Each structure stands twice: as C-alpha cells, then as structure tokens.
C-alpha cells in the first residue's frame, strides 16, 4: 500500500493561528510568508483587526485569509467589545492567538478562553520600556542595547511571562525610525521562529517561566 502524501499547508488543521492587527501588518506578512512554506508547522487561519483601515487586513485578503473587524466604536462599552472580540477570534478555532501590532489591551473574554495561548510581540527587552513608545523610551533613556520580546499576554500592559528575546544594539546616531526598523527585522524573525516552536513542540507557563518544547 502506498503511503498517503503529507498534507499540503492549506489543508492542515493543527497549528491554527489567529493574528490580531491594528496597523500595516509587517509581522503578519512575515507569518503569511512562513505559512506558505510546506515545512512550516503553523497556518494563519484568520486575521482580526480593531480598525477597518488596518493595512494588515489587505495583506490577509491578498493571501486568501478570512478577516474580521471588531471596532470599539461599534459597541456600547468595553465589556461588550471584549466579548465580541473573543467571539470573532473563536470563529476561527485558533490553537494560538498572536497579537502582532494590536494596539488594545486584551480583556478577560480572550485571555480566559485561550489561557496561556495568546502571545504578543514588543519592541524592547521587557520588563524594560513597556507601553506604546518603547523605542522612543529606550533612546531617551540612553540605552545601549534594546531589542524585542515575545511574551505570553496577561491582564497587564506588556507584563506577561517572556517566551524569547533578541537583543538589538543602539548605534550612535540612531533616531527612532532607524532603530525601530532594525528592531522590526529581529522581531519578525523571532516571531516566525518561536511560533513554529510553540506549535511544533508545545508550550506551558509555570509562573513567570515559559517552557517551549515539552518533550
């Protein structure tokens, strides 16, 4: 009997990713490029944005990935938006939720529905320089090394346990744009590599420690 061929990337059911975006979607683009490769263990099955104008939505549609928009202004309060976001994500039955440039704090409906399975990228070496202006803050502080972090999302602002980090040196003459571009390169590589590891090898959270590769 001839063995069945391995499944094509577009027919895999494991490693289902839902990506949350607010802007242009450069990290999403990196994941989409990776998931098109036959050996990559994860696949983006849905993209959810908080803004209809988010550029990441166009990237997803071009790649044939379904999208949803859950705009806060369409809901009477934060609780209603949190619940709607969880429902929109749940439609795609994700194994892992990736916040990639999503400029909203995730509430309990998402975090409790996928405990320990929501990760976020941040352009600094956490716990240093949390928040929306991490690159600017690192420059203002005079840091000589900064970088990027992939962490598990909790209820705080960039306070969740660290999955992995990559250091990026601050060069003489760097401005915010130049430094951020170098961080983005490292961030995309980190995200693609670590998502593949999480999906292929498993991940658990033990207090502040994240273990990838459960053996």
From TrEMBL:
<dbReference type="InterPro" id="IPR036477">
    <property type="entry name" value="Formyl_transf_N_sf"/>
</dbReference>
<feature type="binding site">
    <location>
        <begin position="103"/>
        <end position="106"/>
    </location>
    <ligand>
        <name>(6R)-10-formyltetrahydrofolate</name>
    </ligand>
</feature>
<protein>
    <recommendedName>
        <fullName>Phosphoribosylglycinamide formyltransferase</fullName>
        <ecNumber>2.1.2.2</ecNumber>
    </recommendedName>
</protein>
<feature type="binding site">
    <location>
        <begin position="25"/>
        <end position="27"/>
    </location>
    <ligand>
        <name>N(1)-(5-phospho-beta-D-ribosyl)glycinamide</name>
    </ligand>
</feature>
<comment type="pathway">
    <text>Purine metabolism; IMP biosynthesis via de novo pathway; N(2)-formyl-N(1)-(5-phospho-D-ribosyl)glycinamide from N(1)-(5-phospho-D-ribosyl)glycinamide (10-formyl THF route): step 1/1.</text>
</comment>
<feature type="binding site">
    <location>
        <position position="120"/>
    </location>
    <ligand>
        <name>(6R)-10-formyltetrahydrofolate</name>
    </ligand>
</feature>
<dbReference type="GO" id="GO:0004644">
    <property type="term" value="F:phosphoribosylglycinamide formyltransferase activity"/>
</dbReference>
<comment type="similarity">
    <text>Belongs to the GART family.</text>
</comment>
<feature type="domain" description="Formyl transferase N-terminal">
    <location>
        <begin position="16"/>
        <end position="194"/>
    </location>
</feature>
<dbReference type="Pfam" id="PF00551">
    <property type="entry name" value="Formyl_trans_N"/>
</dbReference>
<keyword id="KW-0658">Purine biosynthesis</keyword>
<dbReference type="InterPro" id="IPR004607">
    <property type="entry name" value="GART"/>
</dbReference>
<feature type="binding site">
    <location>
        <position position="78"/>
    </location>
    <ligand>
        <name>(6R)-10-formyltetrahydrofolate</name>
    </ligand>
</feature>
<dbReference type="GO" id="GO:0005829">
    <property type="term" value="C:cytosol"/>
</dbReference>
<dbReference type="InterPro" id="IPR002376">
    <property type="entry name" value="Formyl_transf_N"/>
</dbReference>
<feature type="site" description="Raises pKa of active site His">
    <location>
        <position position="158"/>
    </location>
</feature>
<dbReference type="InterPro" id="IPR001555">
    <property type="entry name" value="GART_AS"/>
</dbReference>
<keyword id="KW-0808">Transferase</keyword>
<feature type="active site" description="Proton donor">
    <location>
        <position position="122"/>
    </location>
</feature>
<comment type="function">
    <text>Catalyzes the transfer of a formyl group from 10-formyltetrahydrofolate to 5-phospho-ribosyl-glycinamide (GAR), producing 5-phospho-ribosyl-N-formylglycinamide (FGAR) and tetrahydrofolate.</text>
</comment>
<dbReference type="GO" id="GO:0006189">
    <property type="term" value="P:'de novo' IMP biosynthetic process"/>
</dbReference>
